[in-house]
Amino acid sequence: MSSSMNFESTRRRLTEKQADTVDRLTKAAVEVLREEGFAGLTVRSVAGIAGVAPATAYTYFSSKEHLVAEVFWRRLAASPQPVDEGLDRTGRVVAVLRHIALLVADEPELAGAVTNALLGRDPDVEHLRARIGLEIRDRLATALGDGHDPDVLEALELLYAGGLVRAGMGYGSYAQFADRLETSAKLILE
């Protein structure tokens, strides 16, 4: 993650000390999710684990959905684009979709929480959802290459979003979701 990303927040620019607090809160959120799941997650419990006052946590995160969406945004933003390695267009797109799908696959409680959080109506979540969507769109557009069909790009975005909801609803694991994305992307692209 670039140093400018460390200081970026959905609500305001952060000093180094504030960025450290936000980092501790996002790490603590993952700890609470592992132990309690999304239903047991509260901003107050995360603040306790992070060693900050609940009021301080609420200055950065308006809700537990906002906090979880931030965790996913940070993981996505910090993750590199999959390496091209001479792949064709379909291979590049599949690599991008698989990479994004597997960002939280090894943490089922976090994965389910991300789906719930990103569906939230909180304005801070809506802001992050837009940033996440733009990042995924940019990665897919790059994988498709210059002169790509915008309808194909939108179909791939819908594929990813629909798959994320299905996985979050428990219709398979996130690893299975990644495999299914590959199969479906090939149907669209070939």
TrEMBL record:
Annotated region of DNA binding: 42-61
Going by the entry's taxonomy, the superkingdom of the source organism is recorded as: Bacteria
Which spans are transmembrane here?
A: none
Q: Which Pfam families match?
A: TetR_N (PF00440)
DNA-binding among the record's keywords? yes
Question: Which GO molecular-function terms appear in the entry?
Answer: DNA-binding transcription factor activity; transcription cis-regulatory region binding
Keywords associated with the record:
DNA-binding, Transcription, Transcription regulation
Q: Which InterPro entries does UniProt cross-reference here?
A: DNA-bd_HTH_TetR-type_CS, Homeodomain-like_sf, HTH-type_TetR-like_transc_reg, HTH_TetR
Q: Do the record's keywords include DNA-binding?
A: yes
Name this polypeptide is given: Putative TetR family transcriptional regulator
